[in-house]
TrEMBL record:
Family affiliation: Belongs to the complex I subunit 2 family.
Gene Ontology molecular function, alphabetical: NADH dehydrogenase (ubiquinone) activity; oxidoreductase activity, acting on NAD(P)H, quinone or similar compound as acceptor; quinone binding
Record's function text: NDH-1 shuttles electrons from an unknown electron donor, via FMN and iron-sulfur (Fe-S) centers, to quinones in the respiratory and/or the photosynthetic chain. The immediate electron acceptor for the enzyme in this species is believed to be plastoquinone. Couples the redox reaction to proton translocation, and thus conserves the redox energy in a proton gradient. Cyanobacterial NDH-1 also plays a role in inorganic carbon-concentration. NDH-1 shuttles electrons from NAD(P)H, via FMN and iron-sulfur (Fe-S) centers, to quinones in the respiratory chain. The immediate electron acceptor for the enzyme in this species is believed to be plastoquinone. Couples the redox reaction to proton translocation (for every two electrons transferred, four hydrogen ions are translocated across the cytoplasmic membrane), and thus conserves the redox energy in a proton gradient.
Gene label: ndhB
EC number: 7.1.1.-
Annotated ranges, domain NAD(P)H-quinone oxidoreductase subunit 2 N-terminal: 11-99
Protein's name in the database: NAD(P)H-quinone oxidoreductase subunit 2
Domain NADH:quinone oxidoreductase/Mrp antiporter transmembrane intervals: 129-423
TM spans (from-to): 15-35, 42-62, 82-102, 109-126, 132-152, 164-187, 207-225, 245-266, 278-297, 304-322, 328-352, 373-395, 407-428, 466-492
Membrane topology summary: Multi-pass membrane protein
BP GO annotations: ATP synthesis coupled electron transport; photosynthesis, light reaction
Chief location bin: membrane
This protein's UniProt keywords: Membrane, NAD, NADP, Plastoquinone, Quinone, Thylakoid, Translocase, Transmembrane, Transmembrane helix, Transport
Length: 527
């Protein structure tokens, strides 16, 4: 192979956004190594600038006519671009809200930023990986960085405990996922690219072994998106981890998990659509019920948001199961909305814990009288998570439920509506705690609430991240139609999904997607 052919096959420009993040990571690492603690004044802005440049590079790649790169191991198609954009935005806002938290803990900010950028890099590659080795390496880059970040507060026993639990459960999950993809490799005769695997499996009849592989792969994916019953790590890790890390895991890691789910299940398991639809239906039902019901009994804000995150994963799976243009677009739109309303909520929790040293819900009693800004921002974020109009979360759920209803998922949509009402109760409970309490019913933390000052190092970036998240939460609802159109364009511009949607449009109207798959299994249609 000559050099010109090699360059064409590599098509390295597709990973320019990841290249920018990698260079930024190295610069932050070197800056911290050379300048020491004095680098804390500028390394966060260097990291933030690198992420913004990466975001610009992703925008430039939106109409990339040749997205396949590295001999088919990575694709920069529109679906990949939009998921990578969500991950980069979540990392950028996480950096804004974490500077003061890390500085106050007395740990190294440079190391924190380096590991966070490594996790971002792994999540970005995972969103576009189309080859088994690339998928696993990307997944492990994200996972190992997440373990390190979870235990970053080395002097905090809760952080150490959370990291140990996350490491043990995560290692088991990675082993299960690896066994599933190794079965795919063997059944396909040694193929590693997802498209080639699907083509080989279509020509053979190994349904039992393929079903076993599917079960293991779904287990690994479900761990990443915190779906029940693979959610056990979530509450403990959320409660013990540094709060900014929880914010990133709840959005960036979840987005990467859903990107992986779409790509590997739709591409590599077209013959088992009925089976993985059934499994994900069960995961969605369990996640919506357990996540929202158990959240009612929580006394810690971080645990409440952990169970809320589990419930939100159940809602997003409705769009995934719909398998239509509207379904995939509603998934993307809701993840974009979830980015702002969830990080806005965590920014408020960080600010409150910095000033009071606690995250107990009861300690928020009377907060409005001492800190109206945090009260307003947290209230808007929580109400948006609950789906109260006209905030962004309402439109996100509206698109998800409407896509599910059009696809015939009536039971899931009704369950989603019921559990959404349940979620509104525990969100409103926190808002009531902050706003309605009389002066004599203030908590001890609020009575001793410090004088509000934004002059301390790291608080201005925190305020910027908080205001950005809350303003976006309020305005995205108004801009929901053009944003949903962009999400739909991302689906239609992705060859993997557009070919599926064409086949779905041609199916008989009287047949459901699942029954059509059963009648036409040999045609390898993925819904």
């Amino acid at each position: 192979m000559d050099s010109a052919t090699l360059v064409t096959q590599l098509n390295a420009g597709t990973i320019a956004p990841e290249g920018v993040v990698l260079v930024t990571l190295l610069l932050v690492l070197l800056g911290d190594l050379i300048a020491g603690r004095s680098s804390m004044r500028w390394t966060p802005y260097l990291a933030l600038g690198g992420l913004l440049v990466s975001l610009v590079a992703l925008v430039v790649q939106w109409d990339n006519g040749d997205p396949v790169s590295f001999f088919g191991g990575f694709t920069g198609d529109a679906l990949s671009v939009i998921f990578r954009g969500i991950i980069v935005l979540s990392a950028a806002i996480t950096i804004l809200i974490s500077v003061r938290y890390v500085e106050q803990s007395g740990t190294s900010l440079g190391e924190f930023l380096t590991i966070l950028l490594a996790a971002t890099l792994g999540a970005m590659f995972l969103s576009g990986a189309t080859e088994l080795v690339t998928i696993f390496v990307s997944l492990e880059t994200l996972s190992i960085s997440s373990y390190l970040l979870t235990g970053y507060m080395k002097r905090d026993p809760r952080s150490n405990e959370a990291a140990l639990k996350y490491l043990l459960i995560g290692a088991a999950s990675s082993a299960i996922f690896l066994y599933g993809v190794s079965l795919l490799y063997g059944l396909s005769g040694g193929e590693t690219q997802l498209g080639a695997i699907a083509a080989q499996l279509q020509a053979t009849n190994q349904s039992l072994a393929l079903t076993i592989s599917l079960v293991f792969v779904i287990a690994g994916v479900a761990f990443k998106i915190s779906a029940v019953p693979f959610h056990q790590w979530t509450p403990d890790v959320y409660e013990g981890s540094p709060t900014p890390i929880v914010a990133f895991l709840s959005v960036g890691s979840k987005a990467a998990g859903f990107a992986l789910a779409i790509r590997i299940l739709v591409t590599a398991f077209p013959a088992l659509v009925e089976e993985w639809h059934f499994v994900f239906t069960a995961l969605a039902i369990l996640s919506m019920i357990l996540g929202n019901v158990v959240a009612l009994a929580q006394t810690s804000m971080k645990r409440l948001l952990a169970y809320s995150s589990i419930g939100q994963a159940g809602f997003i799976m409705i769009g995934f199961l719909a398998g239509t243009e509207a379904g995939y677009a509603s998934m993307i739109f809701y993840l974009f909305v979830y980015l702002f309303m969830n990080l806005g909520g965590f920014a408020c929790v960080i600010l409150f814990s910095l000033r009071t040293g606690t995250d107990q819900i009861s300690e928020y009693a009377g907060l409005y009288q001492k800190d109206p800004l945090v009260t307003l921002c947290l209230s808007l974020s929580l109400l948006s998570l609950g789906g109260i109009p006209p905030l962004a979360g309402f439109f996100g759920k509206l698109y998800l439920f409407w896509a599910g209803w059009q696809a015939g998922l009536y039971g899931l949509v009704l369950l989603g509506l019921i559990t959404s009402v349940i979620s509104i109760y525990y969100y409103i409970r926190v808002v009531k705690m902050m706003v309605v309490k009389e002066p004599q019913e203030m908590s001890t933390a609020i009575e001793n609430y410090p004088t509000i000052s934004w002059t301390l190092p790291g608080l201005k970036p925190l305020r910027a991240g908080l205001v950005l998240s809350v303003v976006a939460t309020a305005l995205v609802g108004i801009l929901s139609n053009p944003l949903f159109t962009i999400a739909s364009q991302a689906v239609l511009k992705t060859p993997m999904l557009s070919s599926v949607l064409v086949q779905v449009a041609a199916q008989p109207e009287h047949l459901s997607p699942v029954s059509y798959q059963q009648d036409n299994r040999g045609e390898s249609i993925a819904l």
